[in-house]
């Protein structure tokens, strides 16, 4: 059976939820409330085999030129078969289409993201005015990306990576 890569639909959320659950148990992804997945459905790209969601990834725009790649996950049985690659390339294309110049991720999969042009970063890679504005409405991903240990610690201990488009 072939795998289709497409924008997520509301009926895909239970499958996305199941994928996230498999990765949060091992501490590889942060948990997200199901209601937030529905609220953010337009941010997600999914890989679907038949009617089963077998992979996902999301693009969350934070600023005029900055977005986060979130929640990239693929079923274990399909790892190494290019599904994650196709999802990430679709997310990167979406970032370009909406006009984002830089995308970042917080990941343990540094080799995977490195093959897609992401580079490990340290410190705060945004201008002070953007930093201040982002602080006003921070979430875990932004806080970890900006290294805001006093606001939200890097609870997973993952690596910050950035790609300039």
From TrEMBL:
<dbReference type="GO" id="GO:0008080">
    <property type="term" value="F:N-acetyltransferase activity"/>
</dbReference>
<keyword id="KW-0808">Transferase</keyword>
<dbReference type="Pfam" id="PF00583">
    <property type="entry name" value="Acetyltransf_1"/>
</dbReference>
<dbReference type="GO" id="GO:0005737">
    <property type="term" value="C:cytoplasm"/>
</dbReference>
<feature type="domain" description="N-acetyltransferase">
    <location>
        <begin position="3"/>
        <end position="149"/>
    </location>
</feature>
<dbReference type="InterPro" id="IPR045039">
    <property type="entry name" value="NSI-like"/>
</dbReference>
<protein>
    <submittedName>
        <fullName>Unannotated protein</fullName>
    </submittedName>
</protein>
<dbReference type="InterPro" id="IPR000182">
    <property type="entry name" value="GNAT_dom"/>
</dbReference>
<dbReference type="InterPro" id="IPR016181">
    <property type="entry name" value="Acyl_CoA_acyltransferase"/>
</dbReference>
<keyword id="KW-0012">Acyltransferase</keyword>
